[in-house]
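dude i think i finally got it to work??
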Amino acid sequence: MTKTLAARTAPIALAALLSAAMLVSTNALASHQYRVSVAAQESATVVASSLAVQHVTIVGHRLARA
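look at this
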């Protein structure tokens, strides 16, 4: 046991730091993807609602019967 305290705790501290960094970056990526999907869904909803409104004009012609 010739390792010093710093030499023994450094790998544990680096592993904890790496784990925390991975969690933070994964959360940031997931949040970004969520914001993108919400924006895409809202724009699709606006397009769908504008397409759902239809105007129909019916022009009828009567035939003259004698």
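Residues 27-53 form one domain.
im so relieved honestly
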